[in-house]
């Protein structure tokens, strides 16, 4: 029943339904391990339900990562150039940790990928003077009589260097501020605030106990580094979080970044541990092969030399006792 419902109606699930879906996936993966028809007897027997659960796990984790990246792009538009970010992360990774040169390089890179603020003259310049122009959507809403919170039109934020236009109506800032005590906004607050951290943590927990889940977690880790290469360096993530920490409406991004960074750190340890294990296994295999080769050469030398002559045969060959008078 669960399998058929997920096959035919999974498109109706919303991101907020992640906890329910996670429980369903855990139950699906725990069903009896009936062999898949496409598998041979020598392959690990995994039920078709577990395979379906693994596919859903990877899909949901990937979508959660994409959601996090989509939340970052309006604030750090330079992250869209993944190839350039990979090159820069390679340079930063080769620098000594906590060195002044590395810290300066990280700060300059974050400044470079940050979305520039539009100044009063309409030019994209993070240091442009004058108040920013009103956001078109906020201005249109104001003209139609829709509620627009103070600061949504822009001029009041003119002294804020990192002002952005990702919240034109000011809803998120108003809902997350300490002055928002209206109980009628509680449902709206919960509806609009993405729960990326909770979703990602839940899927990681499911994958860590699911048969075959470790492989899915590793593939998701590789996808994360492909979409957001800055997760290769923890201090780069910390710098991005520090830039967002002063924005109450971006707190959900900060905690999500911290969660994904911890996941990447753990998966990196898993990868390094697996490399060491393979290297040790290869070393042992080479040592055994060399020992076997040495024994084979020794046995071959004995066989090629023939039987060792006895003293009697040697004496008989030269006359021996029969020649004595």
Average predicted local confidence, pLDDT: 79
Number of β-strand runs: 0
Low-confidence stretches: 126-130, 155-166, 311-325
Helix content: 55-70%
Overall radius of gyration: 33 Å
Per DSSP, what share of the residues sits in E-state strands of 2 or more residues? under 5%
Order of helices and strands: HHHHHHHHHHHHH
Distance between the termini: 108 Å
Question: What is the global morphology?
Answer: flat
**Sheet of most strands:** none
User: Helical element count?
Assistant: 13
The helix-and-strand class reads mainly alpha
Polypeptide structure, described:
With 325 residues, this protein is mainly alpha-helical. The chain has a domain at 2-115 and 164-274. It is 60% helix and 0% strand. The chain has 13 helices and no strands. Helix 11 packs antiparallel against helix 12. Residues 283-307 are annotated as: Disordered. Residues 283-303 have a biased composition (Low complexity).
List keywords for this structure.
325 residues, 13 helices, 0% strand, mainly alpha
Offer a quick outline of the entry:
This protein has 325 residues and is mainly α.
Give me the secondary-structure topology:
Blueprint: H1 2-9, H2 18-29, H3 48-72, H4 82-93, H5 100-113, H6 136-143, H7 171-176, H8 186-192, H9 196-209, H10 213-227, H11 234-244, H12 251-305, H13 311-317
Helix pairs in contact: 2-3, 2-9, 3-9, 3-10, 3-12, 5-11, 9-10, 9-12, 10-12, 11-12
Biased composition (Low complexity): 283-303
Region (Disordered): 283-307
